[in-house]
Amino acid sequence: MAILSAANILSLAAFKARASEIINGMKVDNRPIVITQNGNAAAVLLPPEEYDALVERAAFISSVEAGLADAAAGRTISHEDLAAEAKARYKA
Prior knowledge:
Elements: E1 9-11, H1 12-17, H2 19-29, E2 33-37, E3 40-45, H3 48-72, H4 79-90
């Protein structure tokens, strides 16, 4: 993830006035843009690849957390039981 600088923080009015230029520049430098409204951060514009990476990372972390919760709650099976289940299911 890119580090933000003052060049990556724009008011909504500035973004509206130069939207096409800003989006084209973002495609080149692959850096997010923070859009402010009334001096406060209101939105973040990300390149599609950065957004996809964030969504994928969040899904991965969620899956790991679910697995850890299952393990902590004792919802596990032995290696032998898993191997037997896989063999029965996939006739391997």
